[in-house]
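Structural prep section.
Before we set up the soaks we want a predicted structure of the protein with FE2/S2 (inorganic) cluster in place, mainly to decide which crystallisation condition to try first. Input record follows.
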Amino acid sequence: MTVSVCVGSSCHMKGSYQVVKIFGELIKENDLESVVTLKASFCMGRCLNGISVLADDRPIQNVGFANAQQIFYDEIYPQAQREKQALENA
Ligand code: FES
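Run finished without errors. Recording the tokens verbatim:
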């Protein structure tokens, strides 16, 4: 899966680099580098809803650096785990 974090100016001001860093660390810690591609992206045109994050094509709302870890485990980890298992069973 691909996780894109907006680093456009509005999201950057809200701490999106911090979110990229936290996601990156969690991907490593959970050994998900083979299934999760983390990307920084330009403005997604949704500047008013917290930091814009897309998990594949699915927008994740209300991301901030304070809840980034929880968002990771709620919204990214389950899908990444499924993909990892599918890979291992293939
Ligand atoms: S700056 Fe992130 S959506 Fe616009």
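Observations: The chain has one domain: 2-89.
Flagged for discussion at group meeting.
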